[in-house]
Amino acid sequence: MTRSVDLGALLDRVRLFGEYDRNLSAIESTLGVAVRTDGDRLVLAGADDAVARAEAVIRRILDAAVGGAHITPEDVTLAMSDTGGDRSAPVPATLLRNHRGREVRPRTAGQRRFVHSIDEATLTFGIGPAGTGKTYLAVVMAVRALKKHEVTRVILSRPAVEAGERLGFLPGDLREKFDPYMRPLFDVLAEMLEDSQVNKYIERGTLEIAPLAYMRGRTLSDAFVILDEAQNATDDQLKMFLTRLGSGSKMVVTGDVTQIDLPSGQRSGLRTAASRLAGIDEVGVVEFDETDVVRHPLVAKIVRAYAGAPSL
Asked: What whole-number distance in Å separates Cα of residue 174 and Cα of residue 209?
């Protein structure tokens, strides 16, 4: 079977094909079809089902490329993975362009659910293993909301619990002692914004970074509030944090229940909070798994290995 897809509206074909035609090669190798260019069209050849699926995938990513997106191999993989859903659904829209011009889009099905929940719900829980982009996407969505003037400030918080080490001996004031805990959030901010802009936001109070304990007694209005590493918060701490929600605000709570660093005798409240609130309107709970890992491919294998290992 042979079919063709018209490329007439696409001026920059590298947006669709990828560097060295990597996107087309991914379609060929995964779906078992041959893809070649013929003037202003792509010609697909192969078995009927494979060609039909390849055409649907190419039309999806073509629409995004015509709209200005640079299609990545991850976008192609995501488009090909939608075998049970609507294959005509568009490639996820660009959430943000960082200060280097790089497009940020959800790269897995779990990430798409997470982004959709943050858009639609007031409170979203993102629970899953390391490397699934929970923290990264939460900060991206916060920066996007700030740039779109949907909120007036962004508040980033973490429990001050060490992963096996003790940081209390470090010199400096509270801010300097707490910086190591917040470094993952700063890393994402540094990718999204110029250093000078981050500093300006902090100086103006537009961006606030604080330990979880400092949330008590506050009402957080017109803000995008993120609690990261929430598996290291107790039931009482999570209740305290969640009840800080004020008008015009969104909250995102992220954590990995397989990496709890609380002292012996203290129980994580993350899973309990998500279970109790899951049925409430305006609350979304998104579960990630190893298929959503977007770090080095070895990370997904490590996650699977530890998931099946007995507790020590």
From this structure: 11
Q: Give the SS3 label for residue 129.
A: coil
Residue type present at position 174: L
Residue type, 273: A
Residue type for 26, please?
A: A
**Residue (of 285, 268, 228) closest to 114 by Cα position:** 285
**Amino acid identity, residue 255?**
G
CB 236: neighbour CB atoms within 10 A?
9
For the segment 145-170, the average pLDDT, to the nearest whole number, is 76
- The secondary element (H helix, E strand) that includes residue 141 is helix 134-147
Strand-pairing partners, residue 36, are 43
List of residues 6+ apart from 124 with CB closer than 8 A: 114, 117, 118, 250, 251, 252, 253, 283, 284, 285, 286
Candidates 10, 80, 23; CA nearest to 52 is 80
- What's the helix, strand, coil split of the chain in %, to 5? 45, 20, 40
Supply the pLDDT for residue 74: 74
* Neighbour order of strands in the sheet with 41-45: 2-6, 41-45, 34-38
- Residues 75-117 pLDDT 10s: 787 777 654 444 445 566 778 877 777 778 887 888 989 999 9
**Mean pLDDT (the chain, rounded):** 83
SS3 label, residue 304: helix
Which two structure tokens, joined as six digits, stand for 132? 């699934």
- Report how far residue 236's alpha carbon sits from residue 260's, in angstroms, rounded to the nearest whole number: 16
The answer to whether 262 touches 232, Cβ cutoff 8 Å, is: yes
d(CA 244, CA 228): 16
3-state DSSP assignment of residue 288: coil
pTM: predicted TM-score of the whole model, two decimal places: 0.75
Q: How far is CA 211 from CA 148, 156, 227, in A?
A: 26, 8, 9
What is the full DSSP assignment across 71-125? --HHHHHHHHH-SSS-TTSPPPPP-EE-TT--EE---SHHHHHHHHHHHH-SEEE
